Amino acid sequence: MKSRLLLFALFGLFSFNASVAQTDDLLDEDPPEYTKFTFYSTRIVNSHTTEMLDKRTLDFRINHRFGELKGGYDNFFGLDNATMRMSFDYAIMDNLNIGIGRSTFERTLDGYVKYRFLRQIDKFGNMPISAVYVAGMTMNGIAPPTGRTNYFTSKLGFMHQVVVARKFSNKFSAQLMPTLIHRNLIDSSQFKNDVMSFGIGLKQKISGGITANLEYFYVLPNQISKQYYNPLSLGIDINTGDHTFQLHITNTRATFEKAAITQTAGSWLKGNIHFGFNLSRQFDL
Are 62 and 37 in contact (CB under 8 A)? Predict the structure, then answer.
């Protein structure tokens, strides 16, 4: 009997030591270190990046796009003619952002929901990319043409976008942006209500908090009028912490995806280039 009790005691002690050792091993495991600053802002120029606002952070953003530079002194190189978008973005959670904006371009009201479902890991994990899904909606505020039946739904447009990014080094990042735009109302039956495009975004760090950026969308053929062009934007980001100041030149006057992708009337080859800037200020709530 004593031998059995001794055996049970030794077995219990071994089990206790094994469980303590296993717990210690779990505590010793390092948590993953996620990649930071794949891009300096939640947007490159018009399109989203995989960057997210921290939980309970509000981002107030103003986007300005001026007239054509080739207008010369008559319109002060485009500064006399401007379109503007003002927006508020808010982080419900670290991986879930929402936003609403109002643009002078067609008096458009727009909103979006953005969810990050993958996040690149630098250490203590294996995830080579970050990825977000963005669902957006726009409402055209221009009075509809008379002489025909107009519906409220004719003012609406929708966007679905997946952004996949990778930070290759401390200086260089890239992302792909397959994007679907749906327009409830189009000018002619020869065009498409659904417009599929593929975007690319690049970031090259110059020094400190300064980066050079590129944003380009290729619209698949025979979807929109031939008077429109693929949007290309080149810019510089200046990050100072809570502020991000973006300067850019582009061939589109629009400041949101639906219009930039489907309604860019300017061509780089024809000199239809606009200067613009985005200003972002974040607040912790």
Answer: no
